[in-house]
């Protein structure tokens, strides 16, 4: 089950779950993203790759990251311990397009929290389908 | 030497049966006591050993000893190796044949083989068998019934820990870090769920924590490094990705701390559940670890012997609880987290590190070390504040609030509470779900009702209505009149969200004494409206300070206002509503010119509590750090939106307008070299002038003109000598400063400061500035007068009047010069022949010959100038020695007037006396003055002296002329009357000179004498050619042209055309000649 999906912009963020622990996990995962982005050679990821892969495992969760071209970070925390990379990639791609649609809303002020109801619904649909696709 | 005892046959049998090898060592003290070969053989046979295992051990020298020891070592090692190989092989066959009674034994066999392999340094085999043992152990979980359930699991885990430790060590020492991590992962996954009986869950977590700790330490101490050639994401053999953090010991330390914390919680739970505390204490007494790994037994004394008795599970649980109580897990947890924190800090993983530090602080908090906890939490809070993680910040602030409560710090408590109450949290459930129980700090889950609760609690304390007794009971927080609370909120304070004051003046400049309007705006993000009793507005000019009192609360605040005596205004309402600007517009009056700035706004809430907000300009105000991401309504601090973007918290108050005229009387351009007089007049028109000060500044017009005020002007340094302020003359002619105490009189190159005496209303005062230009240059003159309009008091500021003027400095006189040959005389100058005619060479003059120098001076100005004198000055040490310069004519009278554009010439004769390639000719000194009209000539004694313009003559080349040709003939003659003309060729050298000459025919003259010839002129003598000429035409006639060629130098000499003319009268003229004598005056140099 995906327990948390976070969007971390330059400074702001929104997310699906409010548990304090997840906040901590998401916050700490930013360090890993920073390291991956700052040392691309060491981590071997290609420059144009937005999907950052598994960031780090915690005792109960796995954390995956995704970085858009505008340096907005998507962080996925899941309790699935066996996740196929392709599923996560696919998830992030769909989530990214949902995010793009949400911030393209003319009433959205860049930098502010996303409050769109449609976005929330769309995200929950994507989150639900994530479990299904991996089961198949 | 002693012989070893003869091995008995029984001993030999024992040795043989057990596969024991013998080594015989013959110990010798000295090298030379050789044991004979025979004896050695006999010995070997008796002992039945191979010759390899018989060695002599020499003790004599250290090198021998070392050698012997090495040999002994290698032999023993070889034997041990063989032994372990054989033993291992034996046990291995047992395993292969499965000839063991129980699985337990299988594990033991595998372990044995692995250990033997390790002895032989066969790491591959050791690892393989450790893994086999580990796998076999996994199989017996749940199947074995050897021990009571709890103890069985404990035993299995202990053994698993051993095997895992061995395997990890071997892997890490072999540099197989990826395999080691994969192995650890699998170990962790396999045992994670084996929690065991509920009453001893804490044992499981303790075990887990130990696994992580041990692995972290192994990883930290191992030399293995992350393979750099392979790129991430690294994958294990079963294709699971590895992350960077898993290579970092900090990750394992952190998890070790996590599990230890889990253990602590479970242990506390278990302890609280078991009532029989006394029983726990007693039961643990005689229990000790058994000889087998992971087993415990009770030690009983039976007579003299000690007997191990197995424990029941109940007994074991009691024992485990008693053991658990003895340890202080919190400090262990803090130590682990600290390691992790340091490691993350070194890696610059700031957020991970602060998470660790947060955990550490929570642990300190739980053991009651609030000082340590507060310090750590403060550091973490600043990161969360900076990055805007509201939920995390809320939690940390909750802890901080609790810490300051326990520490009895009211001010901190209020600050943290206010910050929490103003955090942008608008949603969230008030009740926390049971899943997250224990996860949240003392502040609970972030929610709006919580904010409101904190708000009302803290305002209760601030207003002194209720004290707050902390749960511990020993500290009471309340605000007493002896210790009123005052909070300072500056531009970077986190409390800006709670209270923010912005001040905007409506204008940018104001007149002194006029009303200056400004808007004071207050905003708060606190969840409920804040009622303010009174607001004090503080300015940098303290006379402007005033107080705004709330109309509703006026009677309460009256007492405190009475003391200050400052202005008090009343506002109908002083309540700041959440996220809504409270806008108040007032006016102040300032008498002082300069900057008027609002410093701070102090809000008084109740008798004991004040908040001092530093005032902010709307134009430069930063957003509220956390609220800017929120989707809430944002309004302008002022009603006028333009003012919200441009409003400033300060205003420039002008100084009063000067009512004085400052007049700079300029009279055309200044001339270089003269003392230019510039009258400055001060006329009082509406102000009396007290303690006046006149500042004068000269600035290069081209570069310094952009500089605005003369007060800020820097004195020009490099150009200061081009234009110079020489002095100021006062109207009474007194140049010296008066001895009065207040009088300032300071003149520098470009700057002057002088005091102006008291000037009555309508009166005037003037002075003259003397400025001298050394180079032609336009200059800006700034004059500023500062004065006090009234004589009393120093509080009133000075009034300033400024004036500036651009003055051109022009060159007055252009001096030129020209050298000419002597009349009808032409010296042969060799340097002139050699050099190409158009090359740029200095003038060459002949030694001891008279040359003519014409000096001209041109008036370049637009005013008439009067000549005072013109002369040539030689350098001091050259006077009269090197050359003689004489003034040729005296016809020019002194004090000649030069109208604009007119040129004045003077002729000098020059006789060089020294042979020199560059002879200094001296300097032309031209003394002149402005012609101010005849009647005003005695007007000023300064101009009388005249101004000297100097012109340095270029150096000349003086050389000896070997031949000088001169022509002697009368200046005029009469038609038809013959006259004689001589050409003198002077040889000045020591040699015989052959000279050719050629005379051309002329139509105007009849000529007698040789036309062309060659003559030899003796050294130092003169040859004269004489011609008789009869003029045939009247008027100015050109004499026949004579060309002389010096053969030695192949140089041609002829007289200049202009000089070889003669005037022919048609008949005898009749002149009336007076007694005029030609006078020659030597004016300049008369020898030293």
Which terms would index this structure?
heterodimer, A: 136 residues, alpha+beta, 5-stranded antiparallel β-sheet, B: 1088 residues, Serine Threonine Protein Phosphatase 5, Tetratricopeptide repeat, Immunoglobulin-like, disordered C terminus, ER-Golgi transport (chain B)
Strand content of chain A: 15-25%
CATH architecture of chain A: 2-Layer Sandwich
**Arithmetic mean pLDDT of chain A:** 74
Task: Supply the number of helical segments of chain A.
Answer: 4
Helix content of chain A: 40-55%
Helix amount of chain B: 25-40%
Distance between the termini of chain A: 15 Å
Mean pLDDT of chain B: 78
User: Helical segment tally of chain B?
Assistant: 22
Give the CATH class of the domain at 485-553 and 566-653 in chain B.
Mainly Beta
Number of strands of chain B: 56
For the termini of chain B, the CA-CA separation is 124 Å
Shape of chain B: elongated
CATH fold call of chain A: Beta-Lactamase
The whole-angstrom Rg of chain A is 14 Å
Poorly predicted sequence stretches spanning 5 or more consecutive residues of chain A: 10-16
Q: Can you write the helix and strand succession of chain A as a string?
A: EEHHEEEHH
Proper CATH architecture of the domain at 485-553 and 566-653 in chain B:
Sandwich
Keywords (chain B): ER-Golgi transport, Golgi apparatus, Transport
Pfam family, one (chain B): Foie-gras_1
Subcellular location (chain B): Golgi apparatus, cis-Golgi network
Domain Trafficking protein particle complex subunit 11 C-terminal (chain B): 987-1044
How does this structure look, described?
The complex is a heterodimer of chains A (136) and B (1088). Chain A has 136 residues and is of the alpha+beta class. Chain A has one domain (2-134): Beta-Lactamase, CATH 3.30.450. In chain A, 45% of the residues lie in helices and 21% in strands. Chain A is built from 4 helices and 5 strands, in the order ββααβββαα. In chain A, strands 2-1-5-4-3 form a 5-stranded antiparallel beta sheet. In chain A, strand 4 (62-67) and strand 5 (73-78) form a beta hairpin. Mean pLDDT of chain A is 74; it is low at 10-16. Chain B is of the alpha+beta class. Among the domains of chain B are: 11-84, no CATH class; 330-426 and 441-477, Tetratricopeptide repeat domain (Serine Threonine Protein Phosphatase 5, Tetratricopeptide repeat); 485-553 and 566-653, Immunoglobulins (Immunoglobulin-like), CATH 2.60.40; 660-701 and 722-728 and 745-790 and 797-805, Immunoglobulin-like (Sandwich), CATH 2.60.40; 813-833 and 843-931 and 947-959, Immunoglobulins (Immunoglobulin-like, Sandwich), CATH 2.60.40; 963-1065, Sandwich (Immunoglobulin-like), CATH 2.60.40.10. In chain B, strands 10, 12, 15, 16, 17, 20, 21 and 22 form an 8-stranded mixed beta sheet that branches. In chain B, strands 28-29-26-31-32 form a 5-stranded antiparallel beta sheet. Chain B has a 5-stranded antiparallel beta sheet with strand order 35-46-48-52-50, with no helix packed on it. The model of chain B is unreliable at 1-5, 556-562, 705-720, 735-742, 935-943 and 1076-1088 (pLDDT under 50). The A-B interface holds A 11-13, 18-21, 23-24, 27-28, 30-32, 34-35, 42-45, 53-57, 59, 85, 109, 111-113, 115 and B 228, 231-233, 241, 243-246, 251, 255, 258-259, 344, 347, 349-352, 355, 358, 387-389, 391-392, 395, 428, 436, 439-440, 445-446, 628-631.
């Amino acid at each position: 089950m995906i327990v948390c999906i976070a969007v971390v912009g330059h400074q702001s963020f929104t997310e699906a779950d409010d548990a304090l622990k997840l906040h901590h996990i998401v916050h700490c995962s930013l360090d890993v993203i920073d390291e991956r982005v700052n040392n691309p050679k060491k981590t071997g990821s290609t420059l144009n790759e937005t999907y950052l892969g598994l960031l780090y495992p915690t005792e109960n969760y796995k954390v995956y990251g995704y970085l858009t071209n505008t340096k907005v970070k998507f962080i996925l925390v899941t309790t699935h311990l066996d996740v196929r990379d392709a599923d996560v990639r696919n998830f992030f791609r769909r989530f990214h397009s949902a995010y793009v649609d949400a911030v393209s809303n003319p009433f959205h002020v860049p930098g502010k929290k996303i409050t769109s109801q449609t976005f929330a619904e769309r995200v929950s649909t994507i989150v639900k389908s994530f479990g299904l696709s991996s089961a198949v | 030497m002693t012989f070893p005892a003869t091995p008995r046959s029984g001993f030999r049998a024992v040795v043989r049966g057990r596969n024991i090898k013998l080594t015989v060592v013959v110990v010798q003290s000295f090298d030379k006591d050789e044991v004979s070969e025979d004896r050695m053989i006999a010995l070997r046979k008796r002992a039945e050993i191979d010759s390899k295992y018989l060695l002599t051990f020499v003790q004599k020298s250290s090198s021998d000893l070392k050698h012997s020891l090495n040999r002994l070592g290698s032999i023993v090692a070889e034997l041990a190796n063989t032994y372990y190989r054989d033993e291992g092989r034996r046990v291995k066959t047992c395993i292969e044949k499965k000839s063991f009674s129980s699985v337990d034994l299988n594990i033991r066999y595998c372990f044995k083989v692995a250990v033997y392999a390790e002895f032989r340094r066969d790491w591959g085999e050791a690892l393989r068998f450790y893994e086999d043992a580990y796998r076999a152990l996994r199989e017996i979980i749940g199947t074995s019934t050897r021990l009571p359930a709890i103890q069985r699991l404990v035993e299995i885990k202990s053994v698993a820990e051993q095997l895992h430790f061995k395997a990890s060590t071997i892997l890490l020492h072999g540099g197989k870090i990826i395999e080691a991590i994969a192995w650890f992962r699998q170990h962790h996954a396999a045992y994670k769920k084996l929690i065991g009986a509920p009453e001893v869950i804490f044992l499981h977590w303790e075990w887990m924590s130990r696994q992580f700790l041990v692995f972290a330490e192994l990883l930290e101490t191992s030399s293995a490094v992350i393979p750099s050639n392979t790129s991430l994401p690294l994958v294990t053999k079963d294709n699971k990705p590895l992350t960077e953090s898993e290579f970092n010991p900090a990750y394992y330390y952190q998890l070790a701390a996590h599990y230890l914390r889990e253990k602590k919680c479970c242990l506390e739970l278990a302890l609280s559940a078991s009532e029989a505390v006394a029983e726990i204490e007693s039961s643990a007494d005689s229990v000790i670890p058994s000889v087998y790994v992971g087993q415990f037994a009770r030690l009983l004394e039976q007579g003299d012997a000690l007997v191990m008795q197995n424990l029941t599970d109940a007994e074991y649980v009691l024992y485990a609880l008693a053991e658990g109580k003895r340890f202080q897990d919190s400090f262990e947890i803090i130590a682990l987290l600290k390691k992790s924190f340091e490691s993350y800090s070194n890696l610059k993983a700031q957020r991970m590190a602060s998470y660790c530090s947060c955990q550490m602080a929570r642990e300190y908090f739980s053991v009651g070390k609030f000082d340590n906890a507060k310090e750590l939490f403060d550091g973490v809070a600043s990161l969360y504040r900076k990055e805007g993680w509201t939920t995390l910040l809320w939690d940390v602030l909750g802890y901080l609030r609790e810490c300051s409560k326990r520490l009895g710090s009211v001010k901190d408590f209020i600050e943290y509470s206010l910050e929490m109450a103003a955090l942008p949290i608008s949603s969230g459930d008030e009740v926390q779900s049971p899943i997250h129980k224990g996860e949240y700090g003392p502040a609970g889950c972030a929610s709006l009702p919580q904010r409101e609760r904190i708000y009302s609690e803290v305002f209760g304390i601030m207003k002194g209505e209720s004290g707050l007794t902390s749960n511990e009971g020993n500290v009471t927080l309340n605000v007493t009149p002896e210790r009123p609370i005052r909070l300072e909120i500056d531009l970077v304070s986190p409390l800006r969200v709670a209270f923010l004051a912005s001040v905007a003046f409506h204008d940018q400049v104001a007149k002194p004494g006029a009303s200056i309007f400004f808007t004071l705006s207050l905003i708060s993000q606190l969840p409920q409206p804040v009622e303010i009793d009174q607001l004090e507005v503080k300015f940098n000019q303290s006379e402007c300070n005033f107080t705004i009192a709330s109309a509703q609360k006026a009677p309460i605040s009256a007492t405190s206002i009475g003391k200050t005596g400052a202005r008090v205004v009343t506002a109908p309402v002083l309540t700041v509503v959440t996220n809504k600007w409270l806008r108040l517009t007032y006016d102040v009056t300032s008498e002082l010119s300069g900057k008027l700035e609002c410093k701070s706004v102090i809000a008084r809430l109740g008798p004991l509590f004040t908040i001092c907000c530093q005032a902010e300009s709307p134009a430069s105000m930063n957003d509220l750090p956390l609220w800017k991401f929120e989707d809430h309504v944002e309004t302008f601090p002022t009603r006028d939106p333009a003012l919200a973007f441009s409003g400033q918290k300060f205003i420039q108050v002008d100084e009063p307008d000067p009512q004085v005229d400052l007049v700079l009387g300029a009279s055309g351009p200044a001339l270089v070299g003269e003392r230019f007089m510039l009258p400055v007049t001060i006329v009082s028109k509406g102000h009396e002038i007290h303690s006046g000060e006149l500042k004068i500044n000269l600035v290069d017009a081209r570069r310094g003109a952009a500089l605005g005020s003369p007060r800020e002007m820097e004195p020009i340094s490099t150009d200061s000598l081009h234009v110079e302020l020489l002095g100021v003359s006062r109207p009474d002619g007194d140049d010296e400063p008066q001895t009065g105490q207040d009088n300032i009189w300071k003149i520098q190159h470009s700057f002057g400061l002088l005091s102006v005496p008291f000037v009555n209303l309508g009166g005037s005062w003037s002075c003259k500035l003397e400025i001298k230009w050394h180079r032609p240059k336009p200059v800006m003159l700034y004059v500023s007068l500062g004065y006090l309009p009234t004589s009393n008091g120093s509080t009133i500021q000075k009034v300033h009047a400024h004036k500036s003027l651009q003055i051109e400095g022009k060159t007055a006189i252009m001096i030129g010069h020209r050298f000419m040959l002597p009349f009808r005389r032409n010296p042969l100058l060799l340097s002139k022949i050699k050099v190409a005619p158009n090359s740029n060479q200095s003038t060459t003059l002949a030694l001891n010959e008279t040359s003519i120098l014409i000096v001209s001076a041109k008036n370049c100005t637009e005013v008439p100038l009067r000549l005072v004198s013109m002369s040539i000055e030689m350098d001091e040490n050259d006077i009269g020695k090197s050359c003689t310069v004489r003034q040729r004519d005296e016809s020019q009278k002194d004090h000649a007037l030069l109208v604009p554009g007119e040129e004045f010439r003077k002729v000098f004769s020059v006789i060089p006396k020294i042979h020199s390639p560059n002879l200094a000719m001296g300097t032309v000194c031209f003394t002149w003055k402005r012609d101010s009209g005849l009647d005003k000539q005695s007007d000023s004694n300064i101009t009388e002296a005249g101004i000297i313009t100097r012109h340095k003559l270029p150096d000349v080349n003086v050389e000896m002329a070997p031949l000088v040709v001169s022509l002697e003939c009368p200046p005029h003659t009469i038609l038809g009357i013959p006259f004689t003309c001589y050409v003198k060729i002077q040889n000045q050298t020591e040699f015989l000179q052959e000279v050719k000459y050629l005379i051309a025919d002329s139509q105007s003259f009849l000529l007698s004498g040789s036309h062309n010839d060659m003559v030899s002129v003796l050294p130092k003598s003169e040859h004269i050619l004489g011609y008789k000429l009869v003029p045939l035409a009247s008027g100015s006639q050109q004499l026949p042209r004579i060309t002389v060629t010096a053969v030695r130098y192949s140089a041609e000499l002829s007289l200049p055309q202009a000089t070889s003319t003669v005037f022919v009268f048609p008949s005898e003229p009749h002149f009336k000649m007076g007694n005029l004598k030609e006078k020659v005056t030597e004016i300049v140099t008369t020898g030293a």
